[in-house]
Write a structure and sequence with these properties.
295 residues, 7-stranded mixed beta sheet, 5-stranded antiparallel beta sheet, 6 helices, 19% helix, globular
Length: 295
């Protein structure tokens, strides 16, 4: 019987992106690395559980779900989530940040100071800068002020992030847009008194993500399926997205789709660049039409 692995997600560390596996093993994803795996043909995607605990019923979850949790486990996971705004008494200090993903694509967010830039790497922020530091509720208040006064969103869909990565402006433009918004934000009325402003200093992840010379993607994997296979060469990694050169063009694989499946080594000739899972066209920014399948 072929050996199987369960992916627990993509993690970012000081040395770059790493695919993590149940049991503690990790697989680095440097540029140029060959990635190839198959989905167990008799398998099904099961819930990954909540907050380190397995799903008690091993519920099935849809292939297109990026959370890979059943309804009950998703509810339990969000019950103690800062991102879901369900915790008001967290004593840890928080950073408020501005993250840049492309021209006109800047968001505001918060992250625990102890996490450093990990949250920004996980989101695929090409550039970012700290805006303030203080208690959780003050950081939340600053988010609300920026959304209301400057119309800065707290979310940018991954679909929009992906389509601009191959055509980003120079670092001066990236940092300049952040600097301008940073200055406007600190000048707003209603800035929480307990939130310490942080002087502007941009951090750029363009090189770490491997975006220099990245070709435009032809499509994005919409889901994994039992018996399907994915293979290609790593061109870039940003957030959870791996840009792969495959036998059918450049395709983006959101590694969150890998969790919950039993995966195995592919077999057969051409397995290293095989692509036998559903792939959809990568829409241009602002496009309203999507075809059902690319290949």
């Amino acid at each position: 019987m072929a050996r199987v692995w369960r992916c627990t997600g993509l993690r970012w560390g000081a040395d770059g992106p790493l695919l993590s596996w149940a049991g503690g093993r990790g697989s680095p994803l440097p540029q140029g690395k060959a990635v190839a795996f198959g989905v167990v043909s008799e398998g099904r995607r099961t819930c990954v559980g909540a907050r380190g605990n397995p799903c008690p019923v091993r519920a099935g979850v849809p292939g297109r779900s990026t959370g890979a949790r059943c309804e009950e486990c998703a509810r339990l996971d969000r019950a103690h989530s800062v991102a879901a705004d369900t915790i008001a008494d967290d004593p840890r200090p928080y950073h408020v940040y501005l993250a840049w993903f492309g021209p006109g694509m800047v968001k505001v967010g918060i992250t625990a100071v102890e996490r450093g830039p990990a949250r920004l790497l996980e989101q695929g922020a090409v550039s970012f800068g700290w805006l303030g530091r203080g208690p959780l509720m003050a950081a939340r208040r600053a988010e609300e002020v920026l959304r209301a006064a400057l119309k800065v969103p707290d979310r940018i869909p991954y679909a929009e992030k992906r389509v601009v990565r191959a055509d980003l402006p120079a670092v001066e433009e990236r940092v300049g847009e952040l600097a301008l918004l940073h200055g406007r934000a600190l000048g707003l009325a209603g800035w929480p008194e307990s939130l310490e402003p942080v002087p502007f200093q941009a951090v750029d992840h363009f090189g770490m993500f491997g975006l220099d010379g990245l070709p435009a993607a032809d499509g994005v994997v919409s889901e994994l399926v039992a018996g399907g296979a994915v293979g290609g060469e790593v061109l870039a990694v940003a957030g959870p997205d791996v840009h792969l050169a495959t036998g059918r063009g450049v395709v983006v694989l959101d590694t969150r789709l890998m969790t919950g499946w039993e995966l195995t080594a592919p077999v057969g000739e051409g397995a290293r660049d095989a692509l036998t899972v559903p792939v959809r066209e990568l829409r241009s920014r602002g496009s309203g039409s999507v075809q059902d399948g690319l290949f």
